[in-house]
Design a protein that fits this description.
Strand content: 15-25%
Number of helices: 21
Radius of gyration: 27 Å
Number of strands: 20
Strand order of the largest sheet: 2-1-3-4-6-5-7
Shape: globular
């Protein structure tokens, strides 16, 4: 290679380009990065590929925000977004998103820049032990060798190794093989010079290879396989042998005989509704399950599970997803007299009663359905259904020529319009405004439990970080969902319904780069001035009022309108149902923060 061919080049950039190019060929098109010096080769290569129209870059100054934004993209699209960050504490800030991705089986690909090995453990600035940092939660991890060569045409040993590393990482993130999808960590140490000109061969491929396809590089020399395995530190991942599901088997066939209920937790999806329908069984679907629809859906399930005449007579529970929202479901699944059949999920196997059976797939056997059992549940469900729709106008009174009747009808209408909002009405308004082309994201706040208690059935795409049920990164996740769901000019609004503390915990997500296209998103905040979720937990019976207020309720005086103004969001403060309905359904673009004051 002549000097003119290498002018301005750097091994770090050549390696970064080979890695990103392969990910791009495999269908990965979203990169979320946080600026930093050690990661500049990755960042500048990504910027150039974005300039060429090959991918999209989303810049976030807060690595925790970046991690959850990528999580939201992966949750919505099913493909991993790439997270790029510099070394040191920047990497540690990704841990909450990694844990959520692990427990929710969301694909996520971390590219963390690092100091070279000779600077580790000697007191070098911004250096810590990054390899293995996420070992308990990752599907695959590798500490790559330091790039030390320039590649004339993209086929050198270093480029081949990086491309193979990209393949292995992407396959692991997508769950190819025995393990479920989840997070992957590639630690990438670089020596100076930390960046240079993009190599001439680093151009977008003519056609992307489907991301789920197992791709081996046909140009790779056989000897490079041994070089790759010897050069990388590879961790075993975060799933123990007992947690790894076996190869796909025939579905487990469930006979219709026992009195059965189907439980749909977070991530269950429409399979839960299908199984309930085929089996003729009651469907208990959490609001975050993606299965809250269909003719077998049970309303007011908490009270019915606690009823000895219904919940007390359950003999078998079929579980899909991760149930987290009610104690009644937990109590049912903990009973030793109930047979629990749980479809394997991404995290720990469900086994609250110590005798649950984990299966890969579920099918329903032949034979007559127990119509009497289902009928009892459906009758009780109809009686427990909650109708929160505003009363219809008194058309006859409004048209009356009798002044008293007409004025009375007008007064009743004004009372409806001016009625203050409570939590039930808030969740109902958001639910009614959301349709299949929209996306709804719930925060782990009091409001998701209210929604689970009162809302009816509707087939809309719902997301929530219920893997660990934390309040971390809710706005960031919703922004990632909006980015993915609206890509390619697709229609729809992303709405996130959350409490005030959940918003404040992720307030950094409100910062949005001016250079990026704004997604359509409405952040609806039920503001009751603190963590009122604790009012309904056992601690409220234990803690004194002063301690409850100080260390649990966490009151605050944050002015959300000022936050919205500072971060460039449109803001509305809404106190009535009519105004809320108008705000949710009026055509509007960009980022909107809607505050709804609530009583404690």
């Amino acid at each position: 290679m002549s000097g003119s061919d290498t002018a301005g080049r750097a091994p770090a950039t050549d390696a970064a380009a080979a890695l990103l190019q392969r990910l791009l060929e495999r269908g990965v098109t979203e990169i979320v990065l946080s600026p930093g010096s050690r990661s500049q080769a990755l960042a500048l290569a990504a910027a150039e590929l974005e300039h060429q129209g090959a991918l999209r870059v989303h810049v976030r100054i807060d690595e925790r925000v970046a991690g959850f934004t990528a999580l939201g993209i992966g949750r919505e699209s099913g493909l991993p977004a790439v997270v790029v960050c510099t070394s040191g504490t920047a990497v540690a800030n990704l841990l909450p998103a990694v844990l959520e991705a692990h427990h929710s089986a969301v694909p996520l690909l971390l590219l963390t820049a690092d100091r070279p090995p000779e600077l580790r453990g000697v007191g070098a600035n911004q250096t810590t032990r990054q390899p293995g940092l996420f070992a308990a939660a990752t599907r695959f991890e590798a500490d790559a060798p330091v790039p030390d060569e320039l590649d004339p045409d993209g086929t050198g040993a270093q480029s081949v190794m990086m491309r193979r590393l990209a393949d292995e990482a992407l396959d692991a993130a997508l769950g190819c093989g025995a393990r479920p999808a989840g997070p992957v960590h590639l630690n990438l140490p670089f020596r100076e010079p930390l960046a240079g000109a993009l190599p001439p061969w680093a151009v977008p491929a003519a056609a992307a290879v489907p991301a789920v396809q197992d791709q081996a590089d046909p140009a790779a020399p056989a000897e490079d396989e041994a070089a790759l395995s010897g050069a990388l530190y590879q961790g075993g991942g975060g799933i123990g042998e007992s947690d790894v599901p076996p190869d796909a088997e025939d579905p487990t066939v469930l006979e219709r005989g026992p009195r059965t209920v189907v439980i749909a937790g977070a991530g269950a999806g429409p399979d839960a509704e299908r199984i309930a329908h085929e089996g003729g069984w009651p469907l208990i679907a959490e609001i975050v399950s993606g299965a809250r629809f269909g003719r077998n859906l049970i309303h007011g399930y908490r009270e019915l599970l606690a009823d000895p005449a219904l919940g007390g007579r359950v003999q078998r529970a079929v579980v899909l997803g991760h149930p987290t929202l009610s104690r009644e479901v937990t109590a049912l699944l903990s009973r030793t007299d109930v047979e629990v059949i749980a479809r394997r999920g991404p995290g720990e196997p469900l086994n609250l009663n110590g005798a649950s059976t984990a299966v890969d797939e579920i099918a329903v056997g032949t034979g007559p359905a127990d119509r009497e059992w289902l009928g009892e549940w459906m009758q009780a469900s109809r009686a427990a259904a909650v109708d929160l729709s505003p009363p219809a106008p008194d058309a006859q009174g409004l048209a009356s020529v009798v002044p008293a009747q007409r004025l009375g009808a007008i007064s009743a209408e004004l009372d409806v319009l001016r009625a203050p909002l409570d939590r039930d009405v808030l969740v109902d308004a958001v639910w009614r405004a959301t349709w299949p082309h929209d996306r709804l994201v719930f925060g782990s706040s009091r409001l998701v439990r209210v929604a689970d208690r009162v809302l009816g059935g509707k087939k809309v795409p719902v997301h929530a970080n219920r893997g660990l049920a934390g309040i971390d990164g809710t706005v960031s996740t919703a922004l990632g969902v909006a980015i993915a769901s609206q890509s390619g000019g697709r229609a729809g609004m992303t709405r996130v319904l959350l409490g005030d503390l959940t918003l404040l915990h992720d307030v950094g997500a409100l910062l949005f780069p001016a250079a990026e296209d704004e997604p359509r998103i409405q952040v609806i905040v039920g503001n009751d001035g603190g963590g009122t979720i604790f009012d309904g937990l056992e601690v409220a019976q234990v803690a004194g009022p002063e301690a409850m207020e100080r260390v649990l309720y966490t009151p605050h005086s944050a002015r959300l309108e000022h936050l919205a103004l500072a971060y460039g969001w449109e803001y509305q403060r809404i106190t009535t149902r009519a105004a809320l309905d108008q705000a949710l359904t009026s055509p509007a673009g960009g980022r909107q923060l809607i505050e709804v004051p609530l009583q404690r």
